[in-house]
Amino acid sequence: MTDLQKLTIGKALNLGLRRAMEEDPKVLIMGEDVGKLGGVFRITDGLQKDFGEQRVLDTPLAESGIIGTAVGLAVRGFRPVCEIQFEGFIFPGFDQISSQLAKLHYRTQGKVKMPVVIRVPFGGGIGAVEHHSESPESLFSHIAGLKVVSISNAVDAYWGIQEAIRSDDPILFFEPKKLYHSGALKMEVDTSTAPSRVFASQVVRAGTDATVVAYGPSVKVALDAATAAEAEGKSLEVIDLRTLSPLDLGPVFESVRKTGRLIAVSEAPSESSLTSEIAARVQQECFYSLESPVLRVTGFDTPYPPAKLEEHYLPDLDRVLHAVDRSLAW
Q1: Per UniProt, what is one GO molecular function of this protein (predicted)?
Q2: Of the chain's two ends, which shows fewer C-beta atoms within 10 Å, N or C?
Q3: What topology is assigned to 202-329 in CATH?
Q4: Domain 4-190 adopts which CATH fold?
Q5: How far apart are CA 260 and CA 243, in angstroms?
Q6: Angle between helix 250-259 and helix 274-286 axes, rounded to 10 deg
């Protein structure tokens, strides 16, 4: 029987975590303030109360220790879900992630599995101080042995977090923090039936004139641009990548062969980024279909600015539409 609930992304994550914990007693949640407080974004709200302090653990302020402990727990058969409070705090744990978590399954020829999920609130738009609004996903997408995913809506949040927890490989789960509690993005989630291929790239709006590919918080920007472009008689096809490593670019190639144009959108700086990889791969696979160069709309190659400047830093509807106009005019 279909069970529809209208949920924000934040509530969908909370319910997805709850269901995973109900179904598997080996699922643990750990991180800074995830217990009594329910996390700074309240994503784990109520879970410690219902599942106890042995399964929802408030940790010291030590990301290296959080990840290292999760590695040990995974070796012993648990499925830890770690919360990094803000993406800029992840770097003390970078060595554990890249040198241990990502390598143990391969190093042991599959004998030791690493079913660890690291939840990472990321991106700007919340008016925060330094190290609270960055987009480091490209760094982790480059590390062999990790899967990196990013959600953009409540359906993917609810089912994606469960799928990640069930995986026997380590997954970095990037969550667009500015969209957690957006009422405008509430959507009906069928909590009884999982969609197929949760982590595959997905066409979220069909179009014919140009392809716009995005992920995480940039998907909403791309969809808003497509709506605005339609009023001007332009048809944009929007694709949500969902998985950043390994990239599922099959739907992107198929779309570009139809439209002949691609605009890649991301909040991260452009240099050596996921948008760079997308541009290179599309040029390689779709060269004879392209009617214009692949264009990118990204954050700038600077440290993330103070809050009063972030609206100028982040890709917005106007910057995406400008790229579309440039592509169509080529």
Answers
A1: magnesium ion binding
A2: N
A3: Rossmann fold (3.40.50)
A4: Rossmann fold (3.40.50)
A5: 23
A6: 60
Q: What would the pLDDT profile of 48-103 be if each residue is shown by its tens digit?
A: 999 999 999 999 999 999 999 999 999 999 999 999 999 999 999 999 999 999 99
- 260 phi-psi bin (left φ>0, alpha ψ -120 to 50, beta other): left
Report the catalytic residues: 132
Going from the C-alpha of 196 to that of each of 23, 199, 226, 240, the distances in angstroms are 20, 9, 25, 15
With H, G, I as helix, E, B as strand and everything else as coil, classify residue 273.
coil
pLDDT at 1: 57
The residue among 22, 90, 180 whose CA lies nearest residue 82 is 90
Q: If you search the block for the tokens 């789960």, which residue do you land on?
A: 173
Closest CA to 22 of 212, 218, 162: 162
Q: What sign does the dihedral 254-255-258-261 (CA atoms) show?
A: negative
Q: Name the nearest CA neighbour of 217 among 144, 112, 122.
A: 122
